[in-house]
Structures are given as C-alpha cells and as structure tokens.
Design brief:
heterodimer; A: mainly alpha; two-stranded antiparallel sheet; 8% strand; B: alpha/beta; 10-stranded mixed sheet; two-stranded parallel sheet; 10 helices; 28% helix; elongated; Electron_Trans/Redox (chain A); 4Fe-4S binding protein (chain A); transmembrane (chain A)
Chain lengths: 667, 346
Amino acid sequence: MVAPSEHGGVSLDVAAASATKLAHVHHDTHDFPEPIPWKTGHAGTVAPLDRDTTWIVGAKAVTAPSPGAPGRGSVTATAVATPTIPVAAKPKPKKKKLPGSGIPARLSIRTLVWVRRASQVFFFALFMYFLFQTAFRGTFAAQADTPVRLPLPVEAFLLADPFVTAMTVLSTHTVYRGLLWSIGLLALTLVFGRVFCGWICPFGTLHHFFGWLLPSRRGRGGVRVEANKTHTYQRAKYYLLYAFLVAGVFGSAIGGLFDPICIAVRSIGLGVIPAAQYIGGRALGGASMVPSRGVQGVADHTQDFLASSVWQSHQFYFHQTWLIVFLLIAVLFANRFIPRFWCRVLCPLGAFLGVFARFALFGMEKDHAKCTDCNLCLVNCQGADSPQGGVKWRQDECHMCLNCETACPEDVIKFRFLPNRKGTVTKPDTERRTALAAAGAGALFLPASRIADALDVNYHSKVIRPPGAVEERGFLERCIRCAECMKVCPNNALHPAFLESGLEGVWTPILIARIGYCEHSCVLCGQVCPTGAIQKITEKEKLGIDVAPVKIGTAFYDHGRCLPWSMQTPCIVCEEFCPTSPKAIWVEEVEAPVRDSKPGPNGEQPAMKTVKLQRPHVDPALCIGCGACEKVCPVQDQPAVYITSVGESRSKTNVILLENTNYNQKS
Amino acid sequence: MKSKPEVKTEPTLVRPSRRELLVRGGAALGVLAGSAAIGRAVWDQGGFGVGSAEGARQVRDFRVASARKETQFAELAIARSPLAKTAGEPPLAPMQLVRNALEALGGMARFVSRGDIVVVKPNIGWDRMPVHAANTNPDVVAAVVQIAYEAGAKRVVVADGSCNDPNRCFQRSGIWRKAYAVGGEVVLPAEHRFRTMRLKGDVLDEWPIFTTLVDADKVINVPVAKHHNLAKFTAAMKNWYGVLGGRRNRLHQNIDTSIADLATFMRPSLTVVDAIRVLVRNGPQGGNIDDTREMHTIVASVDQVAADAFACTLIGQHRDNLPYLKMGHERGIGTMYWENLRVKEV
C-alpha cells in the first residue's frame, strides 16, 4: 500500500493501489474514461501517460496468458504506482489520448461496432414486434368472408433457424415450407461466421444487454478478463447439439427446448407479456378509478392501445409459465457470473453455427509480436473466443462483435476477408469420448422415454393436440415447443404440456378446454407453426366443407353433474355454443319429476312437481372435440361435459366408433 | 479450549433520561394511535362490508318521453320489402327499409338530438358471416349509424360483448367494416371496459357491465331476430346479454328471468329489429345457410317487449310461448300486446 502523503499531496485513492480493484478505479476517474492498459512486469512498459494530469495510475500485472492453464489464479496482482507524478497545478480538460500505440482502431471497425449495435436493437425490436403481432386482432378493412390470417410472417425468426431445420430434417427427411429460409442464415455464417449470435439473435441481444446490466464488482477488471477467456465448459453446447441432433435422427425434436428462438418466443410470449399485461392492467385499472377525467382518459386510451397492439383484449393464462419464466430469469441472471453464459455454454444453435463458422471467409488475423498482453480485447469479448495474444483465436466461438479490434491499442487484431489462419483454431473444442457419449444419450433418450410412457399403449385423455396436428409420432418429430401456436391462439386454449404426453412431450401444445376452446373457424396455429407439426390447413378443411372435418377429440357428458340430467334444471349452454352445423349436441325433451325444496306446512314431505327439460346428448359422428361445450359449462370446477382426445382424426388408432376410423381413408 | 476473555460488565440498570423517555413513549403512543385510526377508518363491523346489498337498482333509462306522446306517429313500425309480397323485383336495400321504418316512427330526429353520443348495440355474438344470420345484418347496423349521424349525433359508437373471440366476431360479422365505412366508432369488449354494476334483478344482482354500452346519451338496440333453442325466439330483450361481462353461462338456468332482468336494466331509446335474413332453427348460433330465410323486414319500436312480441311471429312463434315477454309485460317494461300500440306497416 502506498500512503497518499508520499506523493506530495496528490490525492491518491487507496483503492488505486490495490491491483484487483484497478479497473474499478479508473472507471471512476473523471478525466480519463478510457481504460488503462494492464502491463506485464516492470513499470517501464507502462503506456506513456500525459504527465500534466493529476490522476494516478496503478499498474496491474497480468501474467502472460497461458493457454493451457486458465483460471482465476493466473492473475497475479502487484501494485505499482507510477514513479513520477508531478505536483500538477491544475487539472485541465485534455484531449482524450488513446493508450498503447495511440493508433485508434480502423474507422471501418469502429463504425461497424455501431452498426452491430443498431442491428441488435433492430432485430430485437423486430422480434418483439412479431411476437406482439402473433395474435389475431381483426380489422375494419377486412371483408366478412376474408380468411382470417396474420398479415406478417411472425414466425420468421424460427424459419431462419438452421438448428430447427437440421433437427426436423433428420427426423422427417424433409424441409418444411418456409424452413428453407434457414439456408440463408447458413450462407451468412459461411461468409461472416457467427454474426447471427452477435448481430441478429434476439435472445443473444438479451444476454448481451443483461451482461452489461448485471456485472457484479467481481465482474469487472481482472475477474472479467478472466471470465472472458475461453473455458472448457464452453464445450457443453456442442455436446447438447450432438445429443439433440441424434435424438432428431431417432425421431424427437426435443432440442427445441434449448433453441434460443424457441426459448425467447416461449418465455416472453407466454410469460413476460401476460405478466406485463397483468401488472399493467392492474395499474391502469387503478388509474382509471382516480376521480379525474384527464387521468381516466389517459389510462383508458393507454389500455386501448396496449390491448390492441401489445397484448390481448383479455388476460391470458398459461400452464407451466412459472417454470418457463423461472428458467428465463435463471439464464439471464447467470450473466452476472459468466457474461453471455447462455450463448457460450448452452446454446445449441450457437454450436450449430459454430460448426459452420470454421468455413467462414471473414475472420481474425492476429499479430502476436505486437501484442503487449494488455488484455483490453478481453474486457468486452462476447464469445470468449480468445482474441488475446499468445493463444489461438477460436473461430467457432466468436460472435463477430468486433469489440476486441476496437479495443486493441496496439493494432494487433484485424478482422478481414480471407485472413491467414496461422493463429486460428477452427474446430470445436470437444473431446471425442464425451461427444460420443452425448450422441449416445441422444439416441437413448427416445426409447427411454417411450418405454416409460408409450404413445399408443396408454393414450392420455388430455393430450388434445391443436387442429391440423399430425399423428402423434410425427408430431413429436416436428414439434419444437416454440409456443407460437399457444401465443397465437385467440381463446387461450393451447398450453404447454408438462408430463401429460410423457417426458418427450414436455411443453408441446395441448388444448385445455376449461380455459379456452378451439375457435371453430380458426386455423391460425397451423399458420404460425414453423415445422409443420400443425399443418397449414384451410378453414374449409377444418370445418369439413367437401371433406371430413378435423376432429381433435370427442365430448362426453357426466350425467351425474349435468344440470338437466342430475338436477332437473334447464341449462344447455353447451348446445348453444356447439359450433357444428348440424349441431353435435342435440337435446331430448323430457318431463321430469322434481321435488320442491320447501317442506309442507305440517312438516310433511315436500311436494313433487314436473318440469320440462332439454337433456343434452353428444352425436359422436358430428362432434369435433373443439371443447366449446366444456369451456362454457356452468358447472364450474369439474365440468359436466368435457372433451378427451379419443376420436381425434389425426390418429388411426385412438378411435371409438368403427365408422370413424380412417383405415380406409387415404391420409 | 480457548478461554473467553473476561467481559467487564457495566452496571446494567441505567435509567433513561427524561427526554429519551418522552421521545420513546411518545413514539409508541403515536404508533398505537395511528393503528387505531387506520383500523377504525376501515373497520368492517358487520363483515362482508363490500358485498352488503345496499343501494338502489341502477337502471339505464334512455327512453325519449316525447316519442310515445305524439300520436300522429307510430309506436311500432314494420317495414317490409315488396319482395316479401311479390317476387320478381329486387328487394329493397336494408338502408331503405330502416329509413321507412324510422319515418313511420317520426324520424330519427325524435330519438337523437344534435350533439348526442349514441351507442348502437347490434348482436355481434358469434363468429358467423352475415349469410348465417346469427349476428345483426351489417347493412342494417350501418344504416342505423348513418341515420343517427344525419339526425345530428356527435358520435355513434358500435359495441357488443361477443360470445366467441371478439376480434373474429367483429370482423367476420362484417359489422366492423360496414360501421366504420359510415363513420361509426367500433369498440371491442376489452377487459378494462367492464365495471361491476348493481342490476338488482331477480337473478342478476351485481354483474360486470360493458361500460361503453351504458355510458351514452342515447342507446339504440339493433338485434337480429332469430331462433333460440332454449328461449325459443330472441331479438330485442335477449340482445342485452351483450352488456354483461363475467361468466354469463350460469344465466341459462333461468334464462327468461335473466332476460327480463336485463330488459329492466336497459331501457333503450329505440329498438330496430333486423329481420332481413332470419335464422329459423338451430339458433342462436346457426352456421347453416339452409336454416335461414330471407324476410327483408325491419321492425322498429319504442317498446322492446312489443318489438319482440311482434317479431316472434316471423318464425311462427307466439308470445304466450315466451315467458320472458310475459315477465317484461308484467314488470311494465312494455306491452306484449303489440296490437294495442299505434302500429304502422310500410
């Protein structure tokens, strides 16, 4: 420790002497916002400093990065104060001087960093806008017979996702419709590397942002530099990728659980937006109670605007959101410890792009001889791809954020087309045995989950898939759990399953009719499904005009609870809501005895009356299982009419009546 | 084992100073007094203070008194297209039929004053197209909106609380487009537009009410006449289901009383029943064009009970079969004997 008095009255922050806190100190130094280079060894190599200024430089020694032994222990800190500090009279504002050689990074790169930031903001905004628009809002401009469709390709980010494409290609041997767009992203990667991660990915941008927002005091300076070095745990994403792709070969698109776009749609669409609506609705509802016309008007118009542009006209509720949102918060909070933890460690799409990034034409060239090991490149490195001197750059990990070149004071790092690859590692850093084990785990997942809960041995009555869903096996080959269908469903009918369809079906869509029913003329879930798990059917196909209608299940009456059957009370809301024509619910007119609840005057038995009732029945040949009857049944907790998956037209075996089987229909 | 260093004990009993005693005692008293004041202010002595059934029935009476007094005008007007009588020529447009009916009642100016905010309440209950006749005909709604503007209305608002997805109902009924084209403001039933009100009916006590439909100077009910499997026939009185939010599925257990309750709560300025195309079976939702009949008829009235009592004859029903008409009649909402009114057929 250096006592302030030794420096002739210059105020010396005590902390400045503590090397580990150095970075923090110079962030606080007003005159010199730029970071000061850490230097190796002796004080003589400290960058030339402006001697007129009064600030104090503590130098921090970082051992030359040894690629083989990363770790926190490699930061050895010694406190060295600059030897000559003149007793300057007055600190006057100085022109910012760059550390190191003083040569600023190329203008093109400095511009590109801002272009990158603009691109991140743009694509994140676009993603959110698409998510807000993943709902049918209707318009005065449409004719009554205009088919109801979303005007925008709201699933565009998923269509451009080559990991989704690869998984479904392996499981189905086809590329579903719009997924061919993902070739474009692959092409981009082959030219520029993982630019998707650093420039486009909305989930990556979220992590980038939270990494900036959340660093702890430990997440600065030397510790942050250490965190941004390449670590072996970054291999994990490759193992996940291999496991998911092999699981795809064996027939499950479970990798969607980890796809970043799927996670973003699922957690923001099903969690963050409904939560915002809940809180915002309460707040604005409270504001509209304020006895002031102005406040009420503003609250009212805000509610109107939000209900017609950001969220829904009524509050949506989703099963499983607690877990989905908890996991989102967990990975966002992980940025406090490892910047961009998700992107570096877990993201299978990042790993997938990393595999292709090795062929990229654009890349980094390093002049190790010029490197002074200042480690400034590592302070804001997003991909932990070893931009520093003395080690090889990991091309497959780099997010192409260009922060390293902008930061480099010695002009060591250069991004250019067709760089020499002497200092580049292109291949993923994975161990063969672990990779094989991961692939094996992917292969074993399917039999392991299916022998526990075989699909066609033990049909779950509540696994009611959206209309247009393909047969269950094909469905699991395609469904990436992106939740687009759940977000777009106008009646809040579709929810992420938990274990209803086995371990394999976690967060695949199921219809919970008590919360919402399948709108008769609606085919939006199929329109937004990027992989064809729900086919893009038309209204005609769904309603059964010229073809057999799409059935998702069948309704059943619980005569022990149904009001006209068990309580001699008129009801038939179910019949009123039954949308098919002719109605699948028909009523039987009966006269039934009913007891007057009041006892006679002398305590005798209550009198008997006769009431006219309409008792409902289901016609299983007409019922499509939409669940409107279950939704509106006034027996509130456990409905007196409910749907189950039996009779669903997508299955050849989950049937009741022989005439409903489609063995003889071409499928 | 380490022996603890001996702690020097200071004399434990230190008397607080007088000042400290006053400050601490005063603070304690302040907390107590504050708690007592808050507790007393929000004390719900009898329990269930929020739910106690106090207060009068909130009736929304938009009737125009003069409309019944001037005897040269009809109280119930039936406008039919010649097609209903002689086939061959094209039927009159809905706009013309509405105009004819309103002329017979003395014109829209008797109901709508200059500068009024007028709410038009069509039936936009179902995700059906105009051809299915489950919702009010969009041309009839547009006609009412336009004629209300011609009569000097400042704003004409079209709103309803739908059964199916509201966005879809409003768009596919065609009412959104047609009403917008003539300047109507279309308000969808978003959640924040509902406020609990006291209806004090026999079955409807407190219920969330679509505020847009009740906050107006004048209200025009524009129902569609159609079959209803439980209530047999519905038009004007049943149309007020659209002002209700919440879970209205319970109301079917006593549908006639709840219809009468609603009609007691809502007293419109004017009722215009759309019978251009009528759903004659499989109501209220329909869905099959074969279940509809073209009738090219508009029934306008100052009496919603009489309008229903007449309109039910269109599908072969009789007022004696509709208990809610009798209830409405007995409650004095209107008369089920429409012949007793000044009736004009045009």
